[in-house]
Amino acid sequence: MIIEICANSFASAKAAQDAGAHRIELCTQLSVGGLTPSYGCIEKVVKELDIAVHVLVRPRAGNFNYTHQELDIIKRDIAFCHSIGCAGVVSGALNSYNQIDIQATKEFVEASKNREFTFHRAFDMARDPYKALQDLETLGVTRILSSGQMPKAIDGIQLLKKLKNKAQTLQIMPGSGINKTNILLFKEAGFEMVHFSALKNAPTETTNLRVSFSQGREGSSDKQTIAEIIALVAQHS
Question: Which end of the chain is more exposed for a tag (fewer CB within 10 A), N or C?
């Protein structure tokens, strides 16, 4: 099972690498669901660490229906990530009806220039997840990061299983609230990869929203926690 760590800093990225994680999603501002990290942070992580780096490209908090100016910023950020040597990018867009923004996402994939492209948790706001899956497969997306349209992936595991079974060309990667108490449930369900942050001393989620991107969570990923989860998965291989 591939372990992807949501790393919100160089320190978190290094903790992920040192613990034996396979790759990271590099971002900042987890308290609003993650935003694009600075170019300086991206460059430092890519040049000083060996772990595969996928960069979250999201210009602002809030919804995923972007203006032309914001779409241009996203494409410029993706181009930078490609130029600096990132293994992939994580992004996505929806239209005003909470459907996949086909044209925008197509342009994002093209800007990635054959690097891996993960459609992020905007998917969890999509009105029809099965139509969204079909659209993203047509667009050539590598994988979908999803909590199964629930606050935590464990609560959305049934939808995630259905999406995995329907997917023909892309990967379904569960993310949100995955930890050592539930990760084996995802392994047993046949998921080949998972995504989590392993934040140290992170506050507990208190929102009652169906799907939340504002978790009030910061801090750094904990090396020991990541290593323990990787060891747990290895024991059940």
Answer: C
Tokens of 16: 């992920």
pTM (two decimals): 0.91
Three-state DSSP state, 169? coil
User: Which residues neighbour 80 within 8 Å (Cβ) at sequence distance 6 or greater?
Assistant: 39, 42
Quote the crossing angle between the two packed helices 39-48 and 10-19, to the nearest 10°.
30
> Is the torsion defined by CA of 58, 59, 61, 67 positive or negative?
negative
Do the Cβ atoms of 100 and 135 come closer than 8 Å? yes
Contact 45, 26 (CB under 8 A): yes
Angle, CA 53 vertex, CA 52 and CA 54 arms, to 5°: 125
CATH topology classification for 2-235? TIM Barrel (3.20.20)
- pLDDT tens figures, 151-198: 999 999 999 999 999 999 999 999 999 999 999 999 999 999 999 999
